[in-house]
């Protein structure tokens, strides 16, 4: 079953195209890694998939629906913490927010159980009663991931989930994402993500280069930068868009 189909997508904020002729298909339960340089359009593409922005041309379908109709199917972890740190809200309360649906104002016992389960999965159950403002950046990031997973989404979308996290935490997060049995999209500058079992790689820099199929044999050399990676993908790609 197709989870996401993007066809001939073009987008601009002002007069210049930010994304040009993007074509991408993601099947149910596949794991897509989106990489590319700063300003390349990665976050913009996520916002289009989430229905926060509308394409100028082309279309996006999510399980056959428009992004707005499919919004409830997606758990989203933004690049930056979006809640105010002045509010003395606890970790478990943040995760419980993920259990609230339209027209529902109270949590059941099951909601609380699921929220605690998510905290355990992310190894942060011991922080459940802490105020969110008293956590480190990495711990806050894990709480946001737990909240997104608590919605039991069909698709999990994460923008730079490991950027504020130490090496041990990064491994935990990437291992967790790898183990999830749902459709996943992760934007990352961290090439380590490509050592995970990703099904597809999209290199986005206005246009998209999509790699799928055999796992890339990526050099572990730390100087292997994104531009070199793009060249590497061009040689092995299946869908160079331009
Ligand atoms: N709201 C906006 N209005 C106008 N231009 C914008 C807006 N948001 C982003 N841009 C521009 O669109 C381009 C793509 O930005 P985007 O945030 O999608 O890139 P990115 O690949 O996610 O970058 P990064 O890796 O730095 O997060 C950039 O040139 C950026 O300046």
UniProtKB/TrEMBL annotation:
Record keywords, A-Z:
ATP-binding, Nucleotide-binding, Transport
Q: Which Pfam families match?
A: ABC_tran
Which InterPro entries does the UniProt entry name for this protein? Answer: AAA+_ATPase (IPR003593), ABC_transporter-like_ATP-bd (IPR003439), ABC_transporter-like_CS (IPR017871), Metal_Ion_Import_ABC (IPR050153), P-loop_NTPase (IPR027417)
Task: Give every ABC transporter domain span.
Answer: 4-231
Give this protein's Gene Ontology molecular function annotations: ATP binding; ATP hydrolysis activity
Q: Tell me if ATP-binding is a UniProt keyword of this record.
A: yes
Q: Which SMART domains match?
A: AAA
Q: Which family does it belong to?
A: Belongs to the ABC transporter superfamily.
Quote the protein name from its UniProt record: Zinc transport system ATP-binding protein
